[in-house]
Design a protein that fits this description.
Largest sheet: none
Strand content: under 5%
Order of helices and strands: HHHHH
Number of helices: 5
Mean pLDDT: 92
Distance between the termini: 19 Å
Low-confidence stretches: none
Helix content: 55-70%
Shape: extended
Length: 98
């Protein structure tokens, strides 16, 4: 929570960015849980239980997700995102000699 936005985005206020930062970071604190299912449920207009039921059902995942987005495309997205994230973090920490 040491990051303090200062006019980073013209379309989002710094107060909103700070609130989002605090909400996101809070999910990684001991005793807290990641709220991905809650976010998707709210955006889709369904319950968290429905999102979790789909995620736990290979048949539902096939019908509702993999039918539209091939597994290979998701794997490629994951692999690319992971590699880029590691690269960004490495470049960020390099000046600190950690």
């Amino acid at each position: 929570r040491q990051v303090d936005p200062q006019d980073w985005l013209g379309f989002v206020s710094d107060d909103h960015l700070r609130a989002w930062r605090d909400w996101l970071v809070g999910q990684f604190e001991p005793g807290h849980s990641v709220q991905t299912a809650e976010v998707f449920a709210q955006r889709m207009g369904i319950s968290v239980a429905e999102v979790e039921a789909v995620l736990m059902s290979p048949q539902q995942m096939e019908t509702r997700v993999f039918h539209h987005v091939p597994r290979a495309a998701l794997q490629s997205f994951h692999d690319t995102g992971y590699a880029q994230s590691v690269g960004l973090i490495t470049r960020y920490l390099r000046p600190m000699k950690i």
